[in-house]
Specification:
0% strand; mainly alpha; binds iron/sulfur cluster
């Protein structure tokens, strides 16, 4: 009878995901039973070659090529896989961590560049908000009322006795300092240079 020998690097990729700050405390990466529930509910699997069950298997197989595989960019973080997994695994979180690894290696810039304006908004307003370049598409999807609500929002809030959504300039400056110290600005600059 053969004995399965596990070296310290056998689950290196899996452990690097489990130990990542982004991973839930009880993520069941090593418990995956390959049941395929995740794939059965994954909208991206219906329309692309992404297969969450296979992603999980490749992590357990310590397949480092996954980090540079374009497949990981087809996930859109809907958390459906996360919510149905019987062993608390989350391919959604796995994908997020794999993408961070990819970005650190200099991959994935074309995939994240279209969203760089979200990051710009943090710098400009100190808050996350929908970038203006998405407005046309949102109006097409939701209708003109959505845009009108945005235009009127501060007045509506004032009528309701609520504070403005915008932050005072000094707070925005403080947030900018934090974004600079943490490397956010630097990383955004790199993305924009590649984006051109
Ligand atoms: S649902 Fe969970 S246990 Fe089943 S294949 Fe997907 S990750 Fe593995
Ligand atoms: S989070 Fe990603 S992998 Fe999971 S079901 Fe949604 S699209 Fe699929």
């Amino acid at each position: 009878m053969k004995t399965l020998k596990l070296g310290e690097n056998t689950f290196k990729l899996a452990w690097s995901i489990i130990k990542d700050l982004k991973a839930s405390e009880y993520i069941g990466v090593l418990k995956c039973i390959q049941c395929g529930m995740c794939t059965s509910v994954c909208p991206a699997a219906r329309h692309t070659d992404l297969d969450p069950r296979v992603i999980s298997k490749r992590v357990l197989d310590n397949d480092e090529n996954l980090i540079s595989d374009d497949l990981i960019w087809n996930c859109f973080y809907c958390y459906s896989c996360h919510s149905v997994c019987p062993v608390n695994n989350s391919v959604c979180e796995i994908n997020q961590i794999l993408r961070q690894k990819a970005i650190k290696k200099g991959n994935g810039i074309p995939e994240i560049a279209p969203f760089s304006n979200y990051a710009e908004n943090f710098l400009e307003f100190g808050l996350g908000s929908i970038p203006i370049n998405f407005f046309d598409e949102l109006v097409q999807d939701i209708g003109e009322d959505w845009l009108q609500l945005k235009v009127d929002l501060e007045d509506i809030r004032a009528e309701l006795g609520l504070a403005p959504l915008t932050l005072p300039e000094e707070d925005v400056q403080d947030i900018n300092k934090i974004l600079e110290k943490t490397g956010f600005k630097n990383r955004l600059g790199k993305i924009k240079r590649v984006k051109g």
